[in-house]
Amino acid sequence: MIQVTLPDGSKREYQDGASPLDVAESISKSLAKKALAAKVDGQMWDLVRPLEGDANVAIITDRDPEGLELIRHDAAHVLAQAVQELYPDAQVTIGPVIDDGFYYDFARKEPFSTDEFEKIEAKMREIVDADYPIIREVWDKDAAIAEFKRIGEDYKAQIIDDIIPPGEAITVYKQGNWFDLCRGPHLPSTGKLPKAFKLMKLAGAYWRGDHRNEMLQRMYGTAWANEKDLKEHLHRLEEAEKRDHRKLGAQLDLFHLDGMAAAGSVFWHPNGFQVWRQIEAYMRRRLDASGYEEIKTPQLMDSVQWEKSGHWGKYRENMFIVPDFIPAGDEGVEISVPEDAKLMALKPMNCPAHVEVFKSGQKSYRDLPLRLAEFGCCHRNEPHGAIHGIMRVRQFTQDDAHIFCREDQIVEESIQFCRLLESVYRDFGFEKIAVKLSTRPDVRAGDDATWDRAEAGLKAAVDAAGLPCELLPGEGAFYGPKLEFQLTDAIGRVWQCGTLQLDYVLPERLGAEYIASDGSKQRPVMLHRAILGSMERFIGILIEEFAGAFPIWLAPVQVVVAAISDDAAGSYAEEVAAELRKAGLRAEVDRRNETINYKVREHSMQKVPVIAVVGAREADERKVALRRLGSNGQQILSLEEALISLAEEALPPDLKRARS
RNA sequence: GCCGGCUUAGCUCAGCUGGUAGAGCAUCUGAUUUGUAAUCAGAGGGUCACGGGUUCGAGUCCUGUAGCCGGCACCA
Fold it and tell me: Global pTM?
């Protein structure tokens, strides 16, 4: 007999060899029906796999997150089986579960087409209807390799060969006459897979994620416990698409991109640049209040400078190189660069220039920490496939700063930085910030004691700011550990925004030093840090976060004064707008010959936070009718009241705080 | 950079199996002077991304290039 403890703490006895399904059946018929798998002593377990002794058993259904994961994993297997039945020349590789679904990578000469999805989905449904039992088998490693090779599945054979230690057994799951290497667990049979799945897209993916390997064909799918959840998911995707910053950028006339004229660079329009200016002004105030000094450094620097910093050797491919010579002035004459022309490079980052500023003149320990900030415009020649809207561009402006300090100041500076960052993000409305701490890589500069201190310092800093933090062991830069602060776009893609990196190497390479209290020359430590990351990316994320409806302090146009008829209220509308501008608001007038319905609709779609409607009545009584974006009521105020309350409302969050 | 897809008016898109382009919105003009999400009418606007080919004839078929989109790789 074995004793099973259920999640509620109750204990039951079963025959030896009983499975979780027996446990479920003994509890209730309906539970047995809903059961997908089990958790045995915290480990996922097939429903019909016999228990191996006394255990804690929890039955997993599609209500559990683990259940949904099982469904998606099985959907991947069913997809693979379907594809192989339809296309016997396709080889299977891997097919994991991802957020909202799964994918499967196939090797096949001929490209798949999304036109074939319908056929594949139909075959998948057939496999579900066939209700093949999914059977777990334990195979010997060498036998498994031989078998997968025999049936022509070279990728599978290679996976087994590479990841399974010699002598260890592997598990194979069979459904019908199809089988796959898999750790499991799985549903008891294919009939248990809800048909709430859908193939979503095709993509290329390198075998084992290495660009030197051949490219496989990846099929992405989504799978849910029921039709309703699937529908909701698809609806969410549709809604998210409407928030795409590229779409809204055009609709709200914020910016445009032109891949022909300037691939990867943004043409900011008045509306978009107004948002930029508000953000920049806000950041300046925050930096000024936090002991930073703003500088401006050269866009182009001599290649010699980049050689010294080490970028020329390692990152030259990503830099824009500009030969320093005077080309022939005549039209039609082909330009040839003289061989002895000096080379310059557009800066891909600001650090070396900031070190130059630090180095000019003598620095004393009394000057530290020295915090040099710059809205630095950088150029990086990114691979063309990497460019994405305004999120990943080739010209971008970092809200960059470098803190030069003594080693014993690192922790305090890091804490201050994390607190500042947290407060800034909160002002922009971001509550959830993903923080990653990347620690020492295998190949690194500096001794372990220094790394210990540096890593502990960064950890202490995130803790002090009250931010949860995930460790990424081995992911740090070779010169120091780093913190990354990530935000998520409308469809769940994660973007790095803020960063804090410790650097002992660059001050050394470029010979930065200060005079210590004992008169000796010392190396400062350098903290690279950015809060927004890049203006472009951050604005892109803001657009998606707010679906284009910026909070009033950021909105390009804060108030539109719409006249009901030009004859009756046109000049009063001008007067109201002038007063609003005097009160510091960004206001526009709409006295076009259009109906008020039309104007309200248009400015609402342009996501203007406040529409001030004025007609004959308002002009007579010197009032305004305010209509807020997203509500259809109106608020009638005297002009004076409106000016005071709107000016207060439109104040940036930091200035609002300073008031109270 | 790699795999796949896409590219028709300022924008969103039609254009069947090849017979030299069409709608809505926007723009302009006129009428209307309007009370909270589209007033009516008229007009202008396209080398169908670009280059080459097949064909009597190409937006449509083939091919090359570029850009964009979705992933992958990259992201100091």
Answer: 0.93
